[in-house]
Amino acid sequence: MTSFSPHPVYAEDQPYAQTILYLHVMRASAMSFSFLSLFQIPASLIAARYRKMPIDYSVVFARTLKTSGRGLVIGTAAGAIMTWGHMMGREEMEWKDRSWRILANTGEVKTDWVTLGGAGAGAVAGLVTARRGVIPATVGTAVLGGAGVGMASGVPYMIASFAAGRRPA
Fold first, then answer.
1. Quick check: keyword DNA repair in the entry (predicted)?
2. DSSP characters over 14-42
3. Contact at 8 Å (CB) between 28 and 152?
4. CB of 108 within 8 A of CB of 169?
5. Which among 40, 63, 70 has a CA at the least distance from the CA of 135?
6. Could you tell me the residue ranges of all domains in the chain?
7. C-alpha 127, offset from chain centre
8. C-alpha to C-alpha distances, 82 to 14, 23, 28, 76, nearest whole angstrom
9. What's this model's pTM, rounded to 2 decimal places?
10. Would you give the end-to-end CA distance of the chain in angstroms?
11. CB of 122 within 8 A of CB of 151?
């Protein structure tokens, strides 16, 4: 998402610095919150086994889409609030420098694209499953939750890229 912005040679020439930084942190926060919401799946399965209840996987997946959608929305809002709180009172050059470093880091740009692609694929999968009646969820919940599940794919990608030697921005 942020890679659509121009990347000049020098940080002091970076346009749209605040927008780039807000988008980056909101994407990272939404990705993290969506990923954390996926831990609801094993918790539901363990609880059902403990209570000796039959497991209806369509309900578990519908609940997962619901929590993932909530994680996506809450994470996006939290990212905006965190950026505002952290950068409040900072000089324009600090915004430009941080944004320039994000765009200069190819690992960050690739993570943006993997996350965006995962969100798009998840949204389409959520739409198809809801429209076909595979999962008992509304179309809006399924699309938003599918986008959250897809966006969560950025976390394993990011971990793998750091394990392969990527440097932080």
1. no
2. -TTHHHHHHHHHHHHHHHHHHHHHTTHHH
3. no
4. yes
5. 63
6. 14-163
7. 18
8. 22, 12, 11, 10
9. 0.88
10. 16
11. yes
